[in-house]
From TrEMBL:
Belongs to the zinc-containing alcohol dehydrogenase family. The keyword Oxidoreductase applies. It holds the Pfam family ADH_zinc_N. It catalyses: a primary alcohol + NADP(+) = an aldehyde + NADPH + H(+). CDD domains: CAD1 (cd05283). Its EC number is 1.1.1.2. This is alcohol dehydrogenase (NADP(+)). The lineage of its organism: Bacteria, Bacillati, Actinomycetota, Actinomycetes, Kitasatosporales. Residues 16-343 form the Enoyl reductase (ER) domain. Keywords: Metal-binding, Oxidoreductase, Zinc. GO terms for molecular function: alcohol dehydrogenase (NADP+) activity; zinc ion binding.
Amino acid sequence: MSVTQAAAYAAPAPKAPLERTTVPRRPVGEHDVLIEVKYAGICHSDIHQARDGWGEGIFPMVPGHEIAGVVAEVGPGVTKYAVGDRVGVGCFVDSCRECEYCLAGQEQHCVQGATGTYNALDRNGEPTYGGYSTHLVVDENYAVRIPEGLALDVAAPLLCAGITLYSPLKHWGAGPGKKVAIVGLGGLGHMGVKIAHALGAEVTVLSQSLRKREDGLRLGADHYYATADEATFKELKGRFDLILSTVSAPLGLDRYLSLLRVGGALVNVGAPEEPVELNLFSVIAGNRTLAGSMIGGIAETQEMLDFCAEHGLGSEIEVISGDQINEAYERVLSSDVRYRFVIDTSTI
Ligand code: NAP
Ligand code: ZN
């Protein structure tokens, strides 16, 4: 079975609604697998990019980098996967494979630039198209195995939201005895709560309001505060070892830095379209760290999936059909998502 054209939803131009179309898929090469995509999560990054929020994109754009599916065909040199295997693809589909970061399993930081799953040009200069599509061809080294214990629909969002929180939580030592705050209870944030709780940390959600408090506590948070309430910042001053911000809009970082203990770290993973302001005294006082983190490498993504399967951590999802993507984008933009929209690609 070879597929040269795949059905997909694409934004034809920046800010234009997504519409059904077809996109080319390359023939299955020596080390490629053809994936029949089953589910694709909607990440806020899809919306930033489809609307040129981070700069000029490549159009038509088929977003989607939270991809779960089944291997439908393998190239003759493929050793890791067989037809029928359940696999995932995240934010990148290639990298140089020889720089120090690729060799260290941090392909996302490839010196030549990792090839984005969409909104990118591949090593041959052809545009890449993402997971809002029925099929995808990818080098076996850039796919990961979805463990049996995880259903494909709840696994899809782990390929970006899951790894984006797992990686900094591990790196910054979230675990027993550590107080961790997650800012923003959206797609990334809700996975942060689940994973930090499973790692044994004491977890606090800092959300704009108390609207989603019951959910937050059910997902594993020990405490839940509204950031619209100024009293929150007074009460929590100096409280946390680690704060992860998943907020998609510019955030006043000084207020959040003041919530760290001496030596604590605020790790920002949210990627707003505008710069933010920072008073450097916020990090000088208390020897605090302000850091960032970008997704994770292939090996760590596999580790995260195995961890999530072991702890029964899927994403909380709302499954939608292809014709509901534009409406879902609006709902994500108004923080009205509980907690990830996932496209059933059989509806494309
Ligand atoms: P999301 O589902 O929309 O969640 C973002 C949450 O931030 C919202 O649910 C909301 O939570 C909060 N929020 C939104 N606007 C806010 C505002 N004006 N002030 C305060 N809080 C606000 O988005 P997502 O998919 O989780 O992605 C979040 C961000 O991370 C995006 O910018 C995305 O591009 C970025 N991202 C980064 C990486 C990385 O590697 N670093 C990977 C993936 C995504 P409450 O309603 O609880 O307040
Ligand atoms: Zn993403």
